[in-house]
Amino acid sequence: MHTDTRVDDYIAGLPEWQQEICNEVRRLVHEADPDVEETIKRTNRPYFVLDGNICALLGTKDHVNVMLYDKAIVPDPQNIITSGHGNKTARMISVYRDQPINAPALVEMFRHIIVNNRRRNSVRPRR
Questions:
Q1: Total Cβ atoms within 10 A of residue 17
Q2: Across the 127 residues of the chain, what is the mean pLDDT of every consecutive 10-residue run?
Q3: Measured torsion, CA atoms of residues 79, 80, 82, 85, in degrees rounded to the nearest 10
Q4: Which residue ranges does the record assign to the YdhG-like domain (predicted)?
Q5: 3-state DSSP assignment of residue 105
Q6: Which end of the chain is more exposed for a tag (fewer CB within 10 A), N or C?
């Protein structure tokens, strides 16, 4: 697992209930593929990447946003995506306090995004 202490710092600065959500999402994205790396982009936002962006976390006043960088093509048969359905870059799952995360569905979505990232990178012409 490739972790980043700056992501630790971001999560530690959130309320306890948001820390729990972020740590669960973090665990799930690494479960999807152990080669996932963590970084900070946009000044302080945790991103999880492997051959491209997979997801990002953002703690808000009353929920945590999990932005999925899936180009709106990853299936969502469990209907866990809450917004951004027409967005061509990312869609979002808003997780509220005491709301369970559909872990199997989220891991499957992460795996689809990783496969798509790898596919895109394998067909790009080399420079």
A1: 16
A2: 92 98 98 97 94 97 96 91 89 97 97 94 64
A3: -60
A4: 18-113
A5: helix
A6: C
Q: How far apart are CA 25 and CA 61, in angstroms?
A: 18
Instruction: Tell me the sheet residues that pair with 65.
Output: 58, 94
Contact 47/53 with Cβ under 8 angstroms? yes
CA distance 80 to 108: 12
Measuring CA to CA, how many Å separate 28 from each of 43, 86, 126?
24, 25, 32
- Which pLDDT score is estimated for 124? 58
pLDDT of residue 5: 95
- In this predicted structure, what is the pLDDT of residue 1? 77
Q: What is the pLDDT of residue 125?
A: 58
Lookup: tokens for 68? 């999925």
pLDDT, position 72: 84
Give 3-state DSSP helix, strand, coil % of the chain, rounded to 5. Answer: 35, 25, 40
Can you give the pLDDT at residue 121?
81
